[in-house]
Amino acid sequence: MPTISIVRILPFLAFVACTPSETLDDTATDDTATTNDITNETNDTDTTGNTDEPTETTAGPANLQMPTATFSQPGFGGFGIAEAIDGETPPYNMQNGWGIDPQEVDQTAAFETVQDTPNYANGTRLTFTLVHDFLTEHALGCFRLSVTTADRADFADGNEGLVDGDPGDVGDDSIWTVLTPGDYSASTGALMALRPDNAVLVQDLDSTEVTYTIVADTALTGITGIRLEALEDPSLPQGGPGLQNANGNFALVEFTVGTEPM
Questions:
Q1: What is the chain's pLDDT, residue by residue, as a tens digit (262 residues)?
Q2: How far apart are CA 195 and CA 180, in angstroms?
Q3: CATH architecture of the domain with residue range 61-261
Q4: Is there a contact between 220 and 124 (Cβ–Cβ < 8 Å)?
Q5: d(Cα 37, Cα 234) in Å, to the nearest integer?
Q6: Whole-angstrom Cα distance, residue 147 to residue 67?
Q7: Measured between alpha carbons, how far is 172 from 68 in angstroms, rounded to an integer?
């Protein structure tokens, strides 16, 4: 009687990877289908009882949910943080994105990842894209990025902070790991620098429609959340955190995150 076997195909995510400006060598392995005897297919254990956990090698987006902020602009129809992850990039001068007028001080946004990021063998390379195409001078001027592997119940309660005095829960500082960007650039060629606290500071204050691309590596995998801090800096108009000359506001139209193995 022939031996019965089944095929187990390792799941994978497929998508386009964002590549930082510097060339970095990644070693990829192909996902291959494996065939196991039916008597050993009831679980992924070898004869010693060790669990076989596959290592991801593919890249793709980290989809975000539960947009939360310490404050979002309620005026002019509202500029809530949810608009920064709605996938909509409207024509120039159309209302969209996260703004913070009239509270142009340090503000924080947090998001859950829909799924834990992949179990990359050597850590995770993250590529952040920050799109600004709402009016002139409405780009972020100073910002910092962090990640967490904490339980999703510990942060990002979905409150956009549209009511003054009722901030969303972005989580305690202790659960966040601040990233050190290895590459940062602006589509306009605007000069950018890294502050000692790992915040990215824009040094060209005349940005109009601009997209920032930030690449950072972390030893963490299974990332459950992303934090974006908009930070004041004395070099910015009205102290920032945005580039709007009159008040330091900004409008972050879209915020996306991609992951790939280091």
A1: 344 333 333 333 333 333 333 333 433 334 333 333 333 333 333 333 333 344 677 899 999 999 999 999 998 888 999 999 998 876 655 668 999 999 999 999 999 999 999 999 999 999 999 999 877 788 999 999 999 999 999 999 999 999 989 999 999 999 999 999 999 999 999 999 999 999 999 988 776 789 999 999 999 999 999 999 999 999 999 999 999 999 999 999 999 999 999 9
A2: 10
A3: Sandwich (2.60)
A4: yes
A5: 66
A6: 14
A7: 13
